[in-house]
Amino acid sequence: MSPSLVSTSDPEMRHGRKSASRRFDGHKLHVVEEESTEIILGVDVGPGNGGDGEQAAPMVEEIARDTGVEIAELVGDMAYGDGDTRSAVEATGARMVARVPPVTNGGLFPKTDFVIDPEAPSATCPAGHTTTDAHAVRDHKGRSTKRLLFSVEVCGACPLRAQCVKGGGARSITLSVHEARMAKARADELKPSVKAKLHRRPVVERKIDHLQDLGLRKARYRGRRKTLLQALLAATVANFGRLHLLGALGTEQTAIAA
């Protein structure tokens, strides 16, 4: 069997990971739920090795097209917090609310310890030194951005050097194409209103557990197209149950996307 072929009976299956230590083989389910009513607005099935955030914007657009529900705000976990996902969701007219992935640097000062102005561009280090020495570079996706370089003279004499840079060179900071967007997202995380929204995100996790109880723990068919049909049927059953409960409670709700 080819190393890239997970299953001979279902060639669309892929290796995926729930964490660094938990791997699975198969497909990945994506769910969008309206928070107040807990009605499922949309489901999709992607490759097991695909990123969670890749389906966010397409699902927002699909839900608006198929149901007429215009999602104003989408709340997700940290897997939806990168700049590309935020940018794509914002392009649909919605706002992405998710924790920003942490930035690390092997025990040295991470980029987030610097005061960065992506417009200038400039960066001020924890010792108070500022550089505007910017050089054009490309990121891992080939997009044009800037790298700010501190001078060897400044870094060589800095008392914080051992906490900032290794070797005999100087510190550099590579700007993300989403630098300003991510800085704003980090600041927003500190707001009580955003914290409250992030604390409500586990509501959708309960819905996923419910869908697993309805048979979505395992794919019953071969291929993502038929597995999507299975997901749609399970979501329909879940929604009927929820609508029956809301009717029994006499609950009136408005459509607020989460």
Description:
The structure is a single chain. This protein has 258 residues and is α+β, with helices and mostly antiparallel strands. The protein has 2 domains: 14-99 and 189-249, 2-Layer Sandwich (Nucleotidyltransferase, domain 5), CATH 3.30.420.10; 111-177, no CATH class. Helices cover 33% and strands 21% of the residues. The chain has 7 helices and 11 strands. It has helices spanning 56-67, 83-91, 152-156, 179-188, 192-199, 202-216, 224-249, and strands at 14-17, 23-34, 39-47, 73-75, 95-97, 115-117, 122-124, 130-131, 134-138, 144-149, 172-174. The radius of gyration is 23 Å and the shape is elongated.
Coarse structural class: alpha+beta
Mean pLDDT: 89
Tally of individual domains? 2
CATH class of the largest domain: Alpha Beta
Number of helical regions: 7
User: Would you identify the CATH architecture of the largest domain?
Assistant: 2-Layer Sandwich
Overall, the morphology is: elongated
Detail the poorly predicted runs.
251-258
Offer a few descriptive terms.
single chain; 258 residues; alpha+beta; Nucleotidyltransferase, domain 5; 2 domains; 3-stranded antiparallel sheet; 7 helices; 33% helix
